[in-house]
Amino acid sequence: MGRGLVSCALALYAGLSSVTALTPEGMISANRYGDAIPNPTGDFALFTVSKYSFETHNSSSKWAKLDLKTGDISDWEGDESISEFLFIGPSPSSILYVNGTNAEEDGGVSLYFGDALAIGDAKLVASIPAPLSGLKAALTSSGDINFLLSGLAYPNGTAYNENFATKPASAGRIYTSIYPRLWDHWLTAQKYAVFGGTLKTATPGNGTYGTGSSFSFDGKLTNYVTGICNVTCAESPIDTEGDASDYDLAPDGSKLIFRSKDIDLPLSNYTSTPLYLVPFTGTSEDAVLLNPSGAPPYTDAEGYSTGPKFSPKGDKIAYFQQNGINYESDRRILYIANPDAKNAQITKLAGKWDRSPASLEWAEDGQTVFVQASDLGRDRIFSIPMTADNDFVPKNITDEGTPSGFHVIPDGLIVSDSKIWSSRDIYTISAAGEPLKTYFQSNKVDPELAGLGPEDVSEFYYATNSSEIKQQAWIVYPEGFDNTKKYPLAFLVHGGPQGSWASSWSLRWNLKTWADQGYVVVAPNPTASTGWGQNLTDAIAGKWGSYPYWDLVHAWKYVNETLDYVDTTRGIEAGASFGGYMTNWIAGQEMGQWFKSLVTHDGVTQTLGAYNSDELWFMNHDYLGPYNASGMVPGSPYYDWNPLLYSDQWSTPHFVVHNELDYRLPISEGILLFNMLQTKGIPSKFLSFPDEDHLTLKPENSLVWHTEIFKWINFYSGISNATSPF
Ligand SMILES: *[C@@H]1O[C@H](CO)[C@@H](O)[C@H](O)[C@H]1NC(C)=O
Ligand SMILES: *[C@@H]1O[C@H](CO)[C@@H](O)[C@H](O)[C@H]1NC(C)=O
Ligand SMILES: *[C@@H]1O[C@H](CO)[C@@H](O)[C@H](O)[C@H]1NC(C)=O
Ligand SMILES: *[C@@H]1O[C@H](CO)[C@@H](O)[C@H](O)[C@H]1NC(C)=O
Ligand SMILES: *[C@@H]1O[C@H](CO)[C@@H](O)[C@H](O)[C@H]1NC(C)=O
Ligand SMILES: *[C@@H]1O[C@H](CO)[C@@H](O)[C@H](O)[C@H]1NC(C)=O
Ligand SMILES: *[C@@H]1O[C@H](CO)[C@@H](O)[C@H](O)[C@H]1NC(C)=O
Ligand SMILES: *[C@@H]1O[C@H](CO)[C@@H](O)[C@H](O)[C@H]1NC(C)=O
Ligand SMILES: *[C@@H]1O[C@H](CO)[C@@H](O)[C@H](O)[C@H]1NC(C)=O
Ligand SMILES: *[C@@H]1O[C@H](CO)[C@@H](O)[C@H](O)[C@H]1NC(C)=O
Ligand SMILES: *[C@@H]1O[C@H](CO)[C@@H](O)[C@H](O)[C@H]1NC(C)=O
Ligand SMILES: *[C@@H]1O[C@H](CO)[C@@H](O)[C@H](O)[C@H]1NC(C)=O
């Protein structure tokens, strides 16, 4: 795919009215959009557009430029080698970018400085000898640019480049404490670290860029993290879970903040993640804890700290922290710290707000932060003023969809989000939430998404017996839906379990893709779901097979009794991760008889295998304590909610997917399930990808995943006329 992707698509499909079903091929190969990053004056924004081709079996990626004055979208001249950038320098279009290649150091990257409006003239300013990323940069008082990048480091602190590493003769691995592996890799001596460097200006200014824009780099990178050690050493960003939002650089480049797991605790057992503050000119020896675990005045703040960000003047740091020390889904609370105080003065804002905000951005005047939080099946942006007291209840300033990024511009905010019916919308709003302008909606331009819209989706609330509150479920209609006809039910259970089906576009479990096979999709948000208050999220602890199961029964009965256009006698059920656990649980309960077939992706078959996982705090929390042999009696969640103990009741045809690189729920769970099903003579099929982890991400694998699962469920639901499910 060459240049002209965006403009070509816009030209071709403006006014297109033909409507087609969303196929797996179409969903996987449709354009994928990054979020729009505006320049400081809000004149234009840049975003990536990438596309996979099933013809060439290749991905291509390019940058698009959105003119925020005219709304025009055109190709930006920067090419695919620009992996990330930020606006910094004398003019509002001055730009510093990471070139993901390095001509001198194989496997390294490089930094270029130039002007976004003449990007071809950008100059190489730094050669970085390792694959670092996550660029942050700030102008210093002398006119230099201080920057941060992050990546793996050797135990001695030097940046790690796999291409130059010496391979040991044996591949053996030895561990003497818990946490040998995480997500999809075995842990090694190399840990993530934040590195700092300085781009020296050729023409010193005084708090300005001087007259020029020419910089040089002496090659010196300071590692601020690796040297901080006790029981373990510090690591930032945190492996797998973390990213560049784990650290930030003060706007004058004088100091940085980063988060690390608590170095005094066994890492797989606790989430505790304090923040460290370090002078830019210092080293890891100068790092001080901003919010030591359990320190006054907020002694119960001991869990994950996330998203630290300096205010525009640098006089405040906003961050979130959870209380629970072994619970990844506790409520995140907003804190504001003064980085210049001797003992960082910390203030909690809107501390009682019953939502769990995630990402944050500062308003330009430093008097408000905008936060994103899961809210009633969407992710909404809320604003929280510095004057907010503990009882303050923030107001949402967006409504539909799930933002993937939002940025402050002079007029308000530019938001890039997605919805069940659109892979990318880009729009602006005022700081108070008034809509300003909608610039882009992928369902209006991408042929694969033609005809999708909010009318494809609805929701209902139903009463259940596990919670006082009614619970929500999404309905997604198939292409050409006619409510006088009947469609088989696809009943989908989300993972987590602390998570939700939200109005967002996803390349996995894309609700509209399932619906367009010819189903009415019902996607319930039972006990454990996020966005309806912390009590609903927390209520699953110790209750895996009861509350959420009862809720699903109630949701299904609501559908059976209320939605005339749904044929529940031809229904199928499917879920991944916790949704896969629940599918296996359902298989042995009464509900298992209500479906024609079941699909488990990377689920749990037996709770005794819980300690095969990577992060042990998860089971310790959700099963009310660590596994122990004498505790395997009725009354213990490990015993009570073990799907395998109900396998005598299994009989429903069952499709099993389990990937080899899944170290969260290892493949033995899927093999056990398949072997049991086969032994019992229950129609079943097993799919496994040796190169995928807990998620199936590669386009070719994803196509096989969809094709095989749909072939199976469409046979059992009677949608296809195939003579066999295989
Ligand atoms: C895919 O891309 C790679 C690298 O960009 C190129 O070498 C290769 O020829 C491409 N393959 C096809 C089938 O286009
Ligand atoms: C990226 O770096 C390579 C050398 O590694 C160079 O050939 C290429 O022109 C650079 N591209 C950009 C956009 O800077
Ligand atoms: C750090 O360790 C690596 C791997 O042993 C080695 O290649 C590198 O030279 C060391 N760096 C320093 C500064 O000692
Ligand atoms: C920089 O400017 C400030 C006032 O803006 C002045 O006090 C200071 O002396 C200047 N420093 C240099 C090195 O010129
Ligand atoms: C190291 O960790 C232990 C707890 O395991 C703690 O008591 C001690 O104070 C820590 N030492 C330092 C220097 O942080
Ligand atoms: C891990 O945490 C659990 C409680 O959640 C505790 O019982 C266990 O002793 C801890 N293990 C270690 C090594 O700290
Ligand atoms: C805030 O959310 C409500 C639904 O809870 C919605 O009706 C309202 O439009 C949203 N406000 C804004 C400014 O989008
Ligand atoms: C959450 O549960 C606690 C304990 O049962 C109760 O006191 C509190 O009122 C509940 N909060 C909400 C918002 O329902
Ligand atoms: C709640 O409803 C479920 C599903 O109908 C049922 O199995 C369960 O026994 C009920 N629980 C209580 C306490 O009524
Ligand atoms: C579903 O609804 C049908 C028709 O109302 C009813 O006969 C059937 O018993 C219901 N199924 C269950 C499991 O409640
Ligand atoms: C084992 O687990 C049970 C139930 O969770 C608990 O009551 C008991 O104290 C535990 N025993 C040990 C030795 O940890
Ligand atoms: C299945 O057969 C029926 C009746 O012959 C036909 O109307 C329908 O289009 C066929 N469906 C598929 C998916 O081939």
Summed up:
With 726 residues, the protein is an alpha+beta fold.
List keywords for this structure.
alpha+beta, Neuraminidase, Rossmann fold, 8-stranded mixed beta sheet, 31% strand, globular, binds 2-acetamido-2-deoxy-beta-D-glucopyranose, protease
Description of the structure:
With 726 residues, this protein is α+β, with helices and mostly antiparallel strands. It folds into 2 domains: 82-163 and 182-448, TolB, C-terminal domain (Neuraminidase), CATH 2.120.10; 453-606 and 642-717, Alpha/Beta hydrolase fold, catalytic domain (Rossmann fold, 3-Layer(aba) Sandwich), CATH 3.40.50.1820. Helix content is 13%, strand content 31%. Residues 1-16 have low confidence and may be disordered. One 2-acetamido-2-deoxy-beta-D-glucopyranose binds next to helix 6.
